[in-house]
Amino acid sequence: MMNRQLAISLSSLLVLSSCASWEAEHREAVARSSAHHWQKLMEQHHTQPTASGPKWQMPDAQAEAYANYLEQLPTPRRLLEVTGGKDCALNELSQTFVVHQQAPELVERQRKKTAKSVDVEQRGRTVTIISGDCSLGELNGPVTALYTDNYYSQSQYIAGETQFLGRIDGFFKKGRLHGEARVISIDKSNSSGNWRESLMLKIGMFDNGSEVGPHLMIYGEGENQVITLTQSLQDNYVRMNSWMSGKPNTRFHMLNGEIEGWLEFASSVLKDDPQCYRMGQKVENPAYCQQVAPRLEQLMPVAVAAELPRLASFNEMDTIPAAAPRAATPAVPAAPNAPTAPANPTSPAPQQPIAQSTWSIPRIPDLNWLTMPNLKQLYSARANEYIPRLQQQLLTNMVQYLTPKAGPSCVLNDDSTSYLLFQLSKSDYEQQRNKQRSRNNVYTDGQPSIMVAEGACENGQLDGDFVVMFRYPHSLKMGAYQASSNIYGRIEGTFVDGKLHGEISRTWLTQHQPGSMGATEIAASLSIYQHGQRDGEEIHVIAIPNSRSTRVVKLTPYSVQREKADIWLNGRPQLSSMMNLGVIDGYVKYYDGSLSNLVQCFQDGIPQTNDNYCKQLGF
Question: Which residues fall in a compositionally biased region of kind Low complexity (predicted)?
């Protein structure tokens, strides 16, 4: 879909556990930039003429009926708000048809194809049968089921999480879809650095697991809505039409999941000329498409057998009995049949929590896959020294390293606590948070638990060398983006006159709460402070286990209030950005070649239409 491609084409941006201001500000910047670009494209699309004629219209009455039904379906999200379920241990075939509406071998073939350019790691999948026959682990007859499907994807520039919550109502035969089926799902994705949520509706007929007749899908809502019609044709071909905001968009054929022949664009805004494909590969010489086009256009749709069962009545489908809605955002509970990932005998055993009287450290996986940039790219002698140390630090037993150790009893004052948690004095910390809240970034840092393992404490202050473990809850709300986490950390260094002074080492784990929009991270940083102020560059190495992503961040202070971040993702440059008091202020430069706007000027967190402000700053 055109809108999905735009949404994921922007490179994912910084996620710093201890510097949440970067996370929020960059998500906001990307969201605004993406929205502006999309709005501009849609304005052009609405005013430019598009192709017309029979091939850009719904092909038959059944397709029209499906489109009308899905567009008029009242409150489809409500149908996801059901509880309860049957105790069903489904086989792989039945589970795959519930979640993907395809056979396992087709899903696996698509995953192998995707793996050529994107690494995908399955995070979890659940299936809950609300009603239907699931005896012997096999679905038969009319079935209503809820499912979740979560995974992480990573490419050269993009790494992010996708979460599906869906419902299927349809007919099954020996574990395969056989008859009419309707699917409602919500897709949450943070591949572009900010979370987006989209509604998807599908309906169509199946014959022993294969699609027959027209299948209609509506993705998104309002002006961003895309309608896709799929028609199964003779000889395993498929014809696909799409409409964007109610206007013709694309048309093409597929064979065995690969584009074959012309890829046509209805609007000159999107593309002036059709593109020629052969077995999924774009070819410059159009002779092949000119040769096969007449045959493709003559292919007939696969007939739908009259005896296939249909959903009893469209008018009743939106009022299927359901239990009372949940009070909170719907989240399907783990079903008894939810698959568990098999143990990998070649991987080191994950580190297990260690129980303490104070707090326990959650399970932390092995991090021997970290990917670092070429140190020459960082142009920093300090980074050359720090990065190997930080990498080695993350390869130690992190659970043991972060586990609190009893030391001297100490009640710290506000400044000391703020330095330990945020490396800022209490007043500087409040100034930064107030600035961020003025940009509608709502932070909540909960009551911390602090244990001094080593160090002298007097009059609420640490003095001299110290080692401190801490834990505190943290949440961030910025528009639709919401994240809640527990942060477990260790900081060591020196206090002089109540202020950080000398080299400071920090290591922390950010454990996101279930349902939170974020991924677990383990990070380490090194920096030098002079009387409470950072002196020179600070280096972070951040590991994101679920997507096996590594971020390296070089923070360079320009003044007490201003700093620059240079960020690498999986060894490659991702972006650089200027900030003032935790808010983007100055140039942001992106290194993703797929973006049309690689340099953007911001003033106080707001993207500018020109770079006059940034030129005046000199940043």
Answer: 328-344
